[in-house]
Structures are given as C-alpha cells and as structure tokens.
Amino acid sequence: MKTTNQEDLKLMISVLEEKIDKNDNIHKEKELLDKLKQNLHIIENRKNNIEISKKSKANNILFMIFALLGTLFIAGGILFLFAYNWSHMPKSLKIVISVLPLIISQIGIYFTYSKNKSRVWVECFSIAVTLSVILSNALIAQTLQITVPVENLLFLSILLSLPINYLFKPKYNTWLYMILSIVCLFSGLKYMIIVGALMAYYFYNDIKSNKEGNRLFKLLYLFWIFTTISITLDNSGFLFPIILGTVIILILFSEIKLFNNVGVFVLLMITNILFLFDFFDSDYNATTVPELFFGALILAIFVFVVLFFDISKNSIVERFLVLSSLGIILICNILSYTNSTIVDSKMNGVSIFFEVYFVALLIFYVINNSKSLYESRLIKFGLLMGTIMFALKFVFFTEGIIAKAIIVSITVFYIVLGVKKEISWFYKFNIFMINMLLILEVFSSDFGLVAKGLLFIVMGIVFLITNYYIVKRERRNK
Amino acid sequence: MKEFINNTNKKTIIIILFLVQLISLSFPVINHFIILNLGHEYLIEVQGYDPYDVLRGRYLSLSVVDDYIQLKEGELIPDNYKDYSKFKYIYIVLGENGDMGDVFEYGTFEKPINRDYIKTDNWNKKRVSEAQENTETENIYFRININKYYLNEELAPILEKKLRELEDNSKAYVSIITYKGNMILDKFIINNEIF
Fold first, then answer.
1. Rounded Cα gap, residues A169 and A161, in angstroms
2. Using alpha carbons only, what angle is made at residue B160 by residues B155 and B165, rounded to the nearest 5 degrees?
3. What is the chain A residue with the closest CA to B52?
4. CB under 8 Å to A275, separation ≥6 — which residues?
5. Can you tell me the distance from the alpha carbon of B184 to that of A30, in angstroms, rounded to the nearest whole number?
6. Could you give the ipTM of this predicted complex?
7. Among the residues of A144-258, which ranges form H helices?
8. A286 φ/ψ angles, rounded to the nearest 5 degrees
C-alpha cells in the first residue's frame, strides 16, 4: 500500500512539474507541488526507518543467540571438567569449587540488574544461574558420594532457581526449564510441580498483557495436560492413535486452503513418530549407495533452486526451500535408521513424551493459528522439531557418517544463505541446529571429560567474544 | 505481586535467593561431615561395574552381596504389612566380622539401642520355600544407598576390570560410616587397595 502511494506521488509530481515548466503563472500548482514533495519525503523516511528497525531487530536476536550459546557452552564445559572427578583434591576444596559457579552467576545477575544492562545479559545470567545451581548440586553430590537419582538433583535445582524466572521474566530460561523438566517426566508429581510453577507465573503476570507470555502459557498448559493424561492412561499406547485421529479430522474439516501446510506438518510428525516407535522393522545400513544417491540428488535440487531464484523477493521459492529441507530431514531420518534393537531398548521411556508432546503441539497450532496457518510459520516450526528429533536420533542411534555430513552441510549452507540474504530465521534456526548437533555429538562421543570440558569452554568464549565484536561493530556503524 | 517486586525489593530478593541456594547446598555437606566425625566405620562386601552419569561423571555401580537378612527372633511380619506404619521402616543392625569384612546381623522394626544400624524404607518380605515355612524367623530383602561410588574418569575402567577379575579369596568392600541410622560411603577397597 505504501509503495503504491509513493509511486502515485512521484507520478503526480512529475505531471505538475511539466505543467509548471510550460506556464510560469500557476501559483496553486506550485504550492501543491511543494506539499506533495514534502509528503514523498516523509513516506521515504518512514520506509527507511522501518527497514533499519527490522535489521536491528534481527541483529538483536543474533546477539542473543551468540550470548546464550556462549553461556551454555561455558557452563557445560565446567560441568564436563568437574565430572572428571579430581580425586587428588581434598573434599573441602572440591566443595568450595562446586559453589564458585553459583557465586559468579549470582553476582553477574545482581550487577546486570543494578547497572541496568541490556536484556541479552539478563537472559544469559538467568540461564547461568539455573545451570550453576544444577552444577553445584551435581558436584557436591559427586564429592560426597550422594547417590540420589539425576531427576531428584534436577528437580531440586529447578525449584531453587525458579524465583529468577519470577523476577526477570527470562523467556529462554523458561524454555530451558521445559527441556530439563523432561528428565523428571516419568516421576509424575515432580514434573507436574515444575510445569505447574511455570504456568502459575504466566497465569498471574503475563496472560493478559504479554503476547509472548500468553503463547508460552498456552503451550505449557497443553504440554502439562497431555503429558499428565498420557502418563496416567497410556501405557499401551492406545491414546496416541485417538489423539492423532482427532487432529487429522480437525485438519480435514478446517479450510481447504490450510490443508497443504498442516498436511506436511502432520506427515513429518507421523513419520518421525513411526520411526521413533520402531514400526519399521527392517535394518537400513547407514552408508549405502542409496543414501549417497538420495543425499546428492536432494542437495543438487536445493543448490539449483538457490542459485536460480532470488528467494528474498519470491516467497513461493522460500516455501519450496522450507519444504525441500523438510524432505531432506525426512530422508536423512530414513537413511540414518540403522539398528532396530538399539532403538527398542533406548526409546521405550522417551517415546511417550515424544508422542504426546508433538500431538499436543499439533492441536495447539491447529486451534490457535487456524487463520494464519497458511503462513510458513507452522512449517518452520515443523522443520525445527523434525530436526531436533532427527538430531537426537542420529546421535544416539546411528553411525551414519554421510547422513551427518549431509545435515551439517545443509545447515552451514543455510547459515551463509541467511546472512547473505538477510533472512533472519534462516541463520537463527540453523545456528541453533548446528550447535545442537555438535553438543549431542560431543556428549555421545568417547573422548575424555577434560577434553570435552575444555572444548566447550573454548567454544563458549569464542561465542561471547564474537558477540562482543559484533555489538561493537554495530555501534560503530550507527 | 508486581507492586511487591519493585526495584529495591528485587535486589533484596536476589540476595535472599542466593542465600537460600547456599543454605540448601550446605545441608548435605553438614550432614556428611557430622556422620563422618561422629559415626562408626564398617566394611561391607560389594560387587559392581562401571557406567557413566551425565552430570556427575564416571562411577562404579555397586550392589551389596548379602542383600537379605533374617528378622530379629520373635518379630513377625503380617501379610498386609504395607497397611501399617509400624512396618514402614526397618532397622538393619550392623555387626563386626573380623578380617572378613563386616555384616548385616539382623533386621528389626524396633529402633536398636546401643547398636549401630541403618534405617531404610526400601525392603520386602522374602518368599520362603515350604520347608522353611515352619521356622520361627522370617527373611527380608533390603536396599540401602550402597549403589554408586563416583570415581576419577581414568580410574573407573581400571577398577571395573579389577572387579571382574577378582580371585576367589579376594573381595571388594566399601567402607561405610553410620550415625543414628544415616550412612555415608567413604572409601572403596579392592585387593587391600583403598580408592
């Protein structure tokens, strides 16, 4: 709409200028011309401002991602380093060292708040406090040979750090809690207390005023309801087909326009869940010729599309890219599927969670976004979830080097593309994804804890330094 | 709620929260050192292997060799014992056994006087064969917190190997210290070497 106004104005100005050139005595036309020029100037300025604010918003999110990753890596590194168990140290020294990360992160959040630092640092230090409480608990338990289960340690740590959420409303810390609470999922009550406490906060504070809080609340609510029902009733897995059937009926009876996107999403989820449930009983070898062939074919299509279409101007091509990456993940899923017996033994506990979580999300999206489903947000979300499941699966259950290589190369490709074309969600999502792959790979690999710890700390520092320099450069440019 | 959490209060709450976290972390530490200084040491025979904890690193997964004992003479367990609070906890009484390590002597539902014991709620009645049915004592299975021993990453696989290759006359022990029914794991001993 704004562009049309601008073009109309330009046309009117040129017509008027021509008239004035031919006849010098037309005063009214001259006044009108001045006004029109002023209007054009205002519109152009506004357009520029919007573009600048969009760009700076994207940059802010990038700073946030870099800072958060830096914090997570450093905390993880410290954890690895001390999980090594320095047995030659005296107990008392080990206990003092155990509490140090907590002291540092608490001082950090205190000064971040009192010096009124940016939101990025509040988010980082909130996560740092949560992780350092877990860290301190774990190290003390290790030092004193306390043999309580991991879920109890996590439960205690989450409760001890939860007030930070109430004080500063850190969005990413809430997500961290949700991820950590999964560990407590099968001890029922503890899990419900955590999610209930998170829900209570959003219910009393943010549900009316804050859009993000509102969305998180609904998500938590569904998460809670479905997991509770599932834990209570679904030992044999009969609830899952019922929920899935309901969702498919909902989709069928919704507007036909929506069907494509939701259909893709459902297809992706069902396939992933089927793989997780080990419905396919045959063994695939991860490094066979078909894998190479499929991988190469899809990469070729992918590169072709990116090279020959300008995606920043063409939303259809952008959607095609999203869909094709869904396809890649799906195929990698199939290809990386190697040993069914390993899946059997490891997936039993987690399968209920996956099943219920994704179905809950599906219903959540169908109910809440029925009008805006046609936008590619849902598919982006499906892509993210599919990738996370894939990443989890390929790290824990596969040895498929080529499947890993394909997914990493696509991720790097997306990051470069996202930065080049300034499509923020491309690099946001892919930076997250590549780090997740890396973290899981390091967790499951066999080299020493000290080496893992040092690697994580170095990566964390690199992220924080990079963030520092990006912020500095941004300020200089302004 | 929002009025309560104003700017000045927020700083105070951060400090209080930090103190609460420190206090809660100090509970197990204080408890540990009380038992360590006031308790008595026993050696219990164990067996085990070496897995991995994501948060706490490598450890030896241990199990007590003799995990069932006789109930104190004269004490009987009713069939519906889970309905009575009297039968919730059992006291495992410890006894010395010379060079062969120490032993769990018997279990009882009455708190023992002048004896060292471990209190646990994780126990079950042991099924007995028909031949044993007419005996006056009853047997129970029990579980106490001798299940993990955290170790240095390099040491853990070596000890696992030693545990697997134990000869008939050598045994593995953990040293536990008990005080008023609570216990802590102190040392792991194999082939007369302390870890």
1. 13
2. 130
3. A83
4. A333, A334, A337, A393
5. 94
6. 0.82
7. 150-168, 171-181, 189-205, 211-233, 239-253
8. -70, -25
The gap between the terminal CA atoms of chain B, to the nearest Å, is: 53
Distance CA A464, CA B58 (A): 30
- Cβ of residue A153 closer than 8 Å to a chain B Cβ: yes
Interface test with B, best of A85, A102, A209 (most B CBs within 10 A): A85
CB contact under 8 A, A142 and B147: no
> What SS3 class is residue A208?
coil
Distance, in Å, from the CA atom of A405 to the CA atom of A409, rounded to the nearest integer, reads 6
Name the pTM for this structure: 0.66
Cβ-based interface (< 8 Å): residues of B facing A: 1-2, 5, 10-11, 13-15, 17-18, 20-22, 24-25, 28-29, 32, 53-58, 145, 147-153, 155, 184-186, 195
Q: Which of A106, A152, A110 is nearest to A128 (CA)?
A: A106
Q: Chain B contact for A79, CB < 8 A?
A: yes
pLDDT tens for the 195 residues of chain B, in order: 555 556 667 888 888 888 988 998 898 899 898 988 898 888 888 877 777 666 677 888 888 888 888 888 777 777 777 777 778 888 989 888 776 678 888 888 888 888 889 888 888 777 665 555 555 567 788 888 888 888 888 888 888 888 887 776 678 888 889 888 888 888 888 877 887
Closest in B1, B20, B55 to A160, CB measured: B20
What is chain B's Cα-based Rg?
A: 22
Nearest CA in chain B to A88: B152
Chain A / chain B CB contacts < 8 angstroms: 101
Chain A partners within 8 Å of B53 (Cβ): 83, 150
Is the CB of A449 less than 8 angstroms away from the CB of B25? no
| Contact call for B28 and A141, based on CB within 8 A | yes
Q: Which helix (H) or strand (E) holds A94?
A: helix A91-114
In angstroms, rounded to a whole number, what is the distance separating the alpha carbons of residues A404 and A238?
34
Do A433 and A391 contact (CB within 8 A), yes or no? yes
